[in-house]
Amino acid sequence: MFSDEIERLRHDNLFRHIKDRGPICPPARILINNIEYINFSSNDYLGLSNHPSIIEAANKAIEKYGLGAGASRLLSGGTELHATLEKKIAEFKGSDAALIFNSGYTANISAIPVLASEGDIIFSDELNHASIIDGCRLSKAKKVIYRHRDVEHLSELIKKEHGKRKMVITDTVFSMDGDIAPLKEISDICTQHDAILYIDDAHGTGVLGSGRGALTHFGIKPTPQIIQMGTFSKALGSYGAFIAADKNVIQWLINTARGFIYSTALPACVIAASLEALNIVQNDLSLIKNLWQNREMLFKGLMDLGFYTINSETPIIPIVVGDTNTTLKFSELLMHHNIYAPAIRPPTVKVPRIRVSVTAAHTEEDINKLLKGLRFAK
Ligand SMILES: Cc1ncc(COP(=O)(O)O)c(C=O)c1O
Question: Is the pLDDT of residue 162 over 90?
Answer without folding.
Answer: no
